Amino acid sequence: MSPEEATRLQENVNKGAIKGHGNIVMKPYVKEATVIIHKKKGNGDKTKGEMEFIIKALFPDYKKEYKFCETRRFMFDFYCPEINTGIEYDGVFSDKSRHTGVTGFSKDCEKTNLAQILGYKVLRYTAINISQMGDDLWKLKYGVETKVDVAP
User: Fold this and answer.
1) DSSP state, residue 25
2) What topology is assigned to 3-142 in CATH?
3) Are 31 and 38 in contact (CB under 8 A)?
4) Which of 57, 64, 120, 137 has the fewest CB neighbours in a 10 Å radius?
5) Which of 134, 132, 122, 133 is nearest to 84 (CA)?
């Protein structure tokens, strides 16, 4: 993490925008934020907003609703150019979710396969596994396993 990123994140922590542990700047805040998301299942728009909060902390140049193929209407919910990765939220808990039906799931498979053929990495999350997102993005950005140190 650059000194500028650390300073910006610490300022957000000091304002109370991000909760964390002591002065350990990045990882604990991302971890705690993803735990908070996991507890708030069911509201896709709210969950996407919380996902965006974490993505923005790690990748300020991220894009929303990024169209990754010129010949198809497929879009990623979020795209991080720094790691060439699309991030998708599949709202499987809603009765209206298109992700739970055979047709919708098949379209999602087609979309993911096309993105990978075109050279993108794709991360997919539901309300159940969303708590992994911060760790996954950290690993892709820094290429290392993360460890959470909790200040006394």
Assistant:
1) -
2) Endonuclease; Chain A (3.40.960)
3) no
4) 64
5) 122
The average confidence (pLDDT) of the chain is 75
pLDDT, tens digit (0-9, with 9 covering 90-100), for 40-83? 444 556 688 889 999 999 999 999 999 999 999 999 999 999 99
Instruction: Give me the percent of the chain exceeding a pLDDT of 70.
Output: 59
CA distance 40 to 66: 25
CA-based end-to-end distance of the chain: 23
Helices 27-39 and 133-142 sit at what angle, rounded to 10 degrees?
A: 150
- Residue 28 vs residues 51, 116, 150: alpha-carbon distances, Å: 16, 31, 8
Burial of 151 (0-12, 13-18, 19+ CB in 10 A): exposed
Q: Token digits for 116?
A: 């990978």
Backbone angles phi, psi at 66, to 5 degrees: -85, 120
Phi, psi of 112 (to 5 degrees): -65, -45
For the residues 2-26, what does the mean pLDDT come to? 53
Q: Are 78 and 49 in contact (CB under 8 A)?
A: no
- Domain segments of the chain: what residues? 3-142
Q: List helix spans (H) across the chain.
A: 3-15, 27-39, 44-58, 102-117, 133-142
